[in-house]
Amino acid sequence: MSKLDFSPIADTTRRAEIVALLRRAILTGQLEPGQKLNELRISEQMRVSRAPLREAMRELVQEGILTSIPYAGTFVVDVAAKDIVDAYSLNKVLDDFAIELAWPQRDQRFFDELDRRHEAVKQATRALDTTRQIETALQLHGLVYEWADNSVLLETWQRLTSRLQMYFALHQRARNEPVPAEDLHETYVALLKGTDMRAAQRHAREHIDNDFEALLAYARSLEKRA
Amino acid sequence: MSKLDFSPIADTTRRAEIVALLRRAILTGQLEPGQKLNELRISEQMRVSRAPLREAMRELVQEGILTSIPYAGTFVVDVAAKDIVDAYSLNKVLDDFAIELAWPQRDQRFFDELDRRHEAVKQATRALDTTRQIETALQLHGLVYEWADNSVLLETWQRLTSRLQMYFALHQRARNEPVPAEDLHETYVALLKGTDMRAAQRHAREHIDNDFEALLAYARSLEKRA
DNA sequence: TCTTGTTGGATTGTCGACAACCTGCTTGTC
DNA sequence: GACAAGCAGGTTGTCGACAATCCAACAAGA
Questions:
Q1: Closest approach of chain B CAs to the CA of A170, in angstroms?
Q2: I need a labelling partner for B130 at 20 to 30 A (CA). Which of A55, A184, A202, B113 fits?
């Protein structure tokens, strides 16, 4: 028996890489909502045939960040104000549930990971790298989901995350002065380490409200314009 | 302005039909969990090339009812006991939320539709058509999600539904004497028509417990076997 | 006997070409 | 000038064939 346990090697199929590339392009806002994806053009740019590209796009359609109309094309999903509010309110419910499930599972590894991810957020914040800040903040929040030990919940969260990340990126671009607030996560982290689950849940809800406040204002401004 | 509002015509692409065919085959248990899907064989049976078949499979992978291993194959997702418990517990949380959102939205159309779907369940029950009974029961429960007016929540529910339906079908086949209980939904429907939201939520939770009781027993028996 | 290398068959991943389809423009008619 | 029919270009959907990979069976050596 070996002491080392190897993790599965990266499955290197063109399709998987295309998915990663496209997802990143969408979530960082390089591809704008509503924009059409021309298969031939993209496949040429990526030096890849249309088959794996199309399969990748099918995956992203199911992931909810692309939308496809037969014989018309595939587009980056259009984000309405209501979608943001919807995702946001569901997120609160799921967070509550995730904290409840994760609570008894917390261990040293959890706390270590919590600190690690918190540190990553602070670093991205200092570097004024807003894209990375969004990413790391969502990863920080994702920890309780990973510890909740509920695969369906985790999967749901990950789907939601894609959208949230997209909304945030959109918002950041809209008012292109980012100004990330220094440290909104200190209390969140502290409470997750504490003994009062209810308090943690309550704070999470308020914290989310806080995080999303600007986003909601943006959402409402969209609403008015429409 | 026309008084008629036409629904979009059926998008007739092979891919879409393949998705529907495969999904049905999986959810009704014609394709068993863990079973491998041979692309060439299936494409020949369907008289279709592998391209649209593969794209369809990618969709179902993202939908969570297939799983794909590069260069090895695509398989019907293996359902572990824990998955059932996970889906089931998340379902309770979502139901709570859905009822809360749908509550103020209830109108005559809601009540009519509620009755209609309830009737469909009863009919399937009388006909001893267990597959259809599962389908209609899930549609009955889906009504509050449709009325909740939260697209993300609805989408999440639909994803969950696929799995639940699969689990139920699996369970029914395992103990192939179905014996669907006559009418567990009477109280549920009545409460949704009433004025006490809390009571409706509480009952929904218990009702789900009831519905899933046998399934949970089955899940635990799987757990022991493993 | 166990391990390691090889080989053949089967299956998945990818490619380039063709068919179906939509869209916008042109043409012809009134 | 308005409008319908039809043509042309471009894009998506589908096909059949080829390349890359995996797996099981078998052979060879320690």
A1: 18
A2: B113
Distance from residue A177's CA to nucleotide D13's C1', rounded to whole Å: 43
What is the fold, at CATH topology level, of the domain defined by B14-76? Arc Repressor Mutant, subunit A (1.10.10)
Helix axes A197-225, A186-193, angle to 10 degrees: 150
The band of A198, judged by pLDDT with boundaries at 50, 70 and 90, is very high
Domain locations along chain A:
14-76, 81-225
Identity of the amino acid at B152: V
Nucleotide nearest to A71 (CA to C1'): D12
The answer to whether the CB of B162 falls within 8 A of the CB of B64 is yes
Mean pLDDT, range B99-105, rounded to an integer:
97
Q: What residues in A contact B93, CB-CB < 8 Å?
A: 93-94, 97
Supply A59's token pair: 């995956």
pLDDT tens digit string along A171-191?
877 776 555 566 778 899 999
Interface test with B, best of A152, A153, A158, A159 (most B CBs within 10 A): A152
pLDDT digits (tens, 9 = 90+) for A150-179: 999 999 999 999 988 888 888 877 776 555
pLDDT of A5 over the 70 cut: no
Is the predicted pLDDT of residue B224 greater than 80, yes or no?
no
Q: pLDDT tens-digit profile of A24-37?
A: 999 988 999 999 99
Test the B interface: residue of A59, A62, A105, A167 with most B CBs within 10 Å? A62
| Residue B67, helix vs strand vs coil | strand
* CATH class of the domain defined by B81-225: mainly alpha
- B83–A54: do the CB atoms touch at under 8 Å? no
Task: Kindly give the residue spans of alpha helices, DSSP state H, lying in A64-150.
Answer: 81-102, 108-126, 130-147
User: What is the C-alpha separation between A73 and A67, in angstroms, rounded?
Assistant: 9
The pair of structure tokens assigned to A9 is 């090697």
Give the C-alpha separation, B124 to B108, whole Å. Answer: 25
Question: Is the pLDDT confidence value at A225 over 60?
Answer: no
